[in-house]
From TrEMBL:
Gene Ontology CC annotation, any one: endoplasmic reticulum membrane
Transmembrane segments: 70-86, 93-114, 165-195
Organism, scientific name: Trapa incisa
Major location (coarse): endoplasmic reticulum
Membrane topology, as annotated: Multi-pass membrane protein
Localization, UniProt: Endoplasmic reticulum membrane
Protein's UniProt name: Reticulon-like protein
Length: 245
């Protein structure tokens, strides 16, 4: 009888344990549901990674997203000073470089010769040289990017991707309009300020921006479908690539 009661007690404990584990598994499945829903949330440009990873996740991303406020503010301040010098004060690059070199050489020359009168050692001017490897790496990366851009333009010009063709034409048209409003330096400064303000603002308010962007993209796709049905589908296209059967 005692053994029978012990086996009953053990079986009862096993049933309780299974119920507890079953409850845990159900709660785990419930916890997984919100994560699945979060994964299905629309993100701008279809990104799956955080904004910091989209920008490379290194020091440039830290600067653009104001992780280090001193460096970000310093970069924006230097860019603003350069724009004010060349655009508002109408300074020329060659004049600025020459004046900067004249001032630097004059200060170092007077300092080097003045130390002989006050019995102090002359200033130590370090030897400055441009390293070869980083320059070669930069040129190599630049060459690859230019070749990729030329390849994309060739593919678009051959009429193989109508969406890309329209996007590039629209972008170039907008860029030409913006270029007629301002010169290259001002355009570069606007892009620089844009990169230092819009990404960090988007990162802070992405939960509000992404739903609006989703609605906008749905509307754009609807309008494009109507345009494609009525006009674009009737335009003859270039030769397509051979399809693999």
């Amino acid at each position: 009888m005692a053994e029978h009661e012990e086996t009953k007690g053990e079986s009862l404990m096993e049933m309780i344990t299974e119920k507890i584990h079953g409850g845990d598994s159900s709660s785990d499945s419930e916890d997984e549901k919100p994560s699945e829903l979060k994964a299905k949330i629309y993100r701008l440009f279809g990104r799956e990674k955080p904004v910091h990873h989209v920008f490379g996740g290194g020091k440039p991303a830290d600067v653009l997203l104001w992780r280090n406020k001193k460096i970000s503010a310093g970069a924006l301040g230097v860019a603003t000073a350069i724009w004010v010098l060349f655009e508002l004060m109408e300074y020329h690059l060659l004049t600025l470089v020459c004046h900067g070199l004249i001032l630097t050489l004059a200060i170092v020359f007077l300092w080097s010769n003045g130390t002989t009168f006050i019995n102090k050692s002359p200033p130590r001017i370090p030897k400055v040289s441009m390293p070869e490897q980083p320059v070669l790496q930069f040129v190599s990366v630049l060459r690859l990017e230019i070749n990729h851009a030329l390849f994309v333009l060739r593919e678009i010009a051959m009429g193989r991707d109508l969406k890309k063709f329209l996007a590039v034409i629209a972008s170039l048209w907008v860029l030409s309009i913006v270029g007629s409003w301002c010169n290259f330096l001002t355009l570069f400064y606007i892009v620089f300020v844009f990169l230092h303000t819009v990404p960090v603002l988007y990162e802070k308010h992405e939960d509000k921006v992404d739903p609006l962007a989703e609605k906008l993209m749905i509307e754009i796709k609807k309008q494009y479908a109507v345009l494609d049905e009525k006009l674009l589908s009737k335009i003859p296209r270039g030769p397509l690539k051979d399809k693999k059967h």
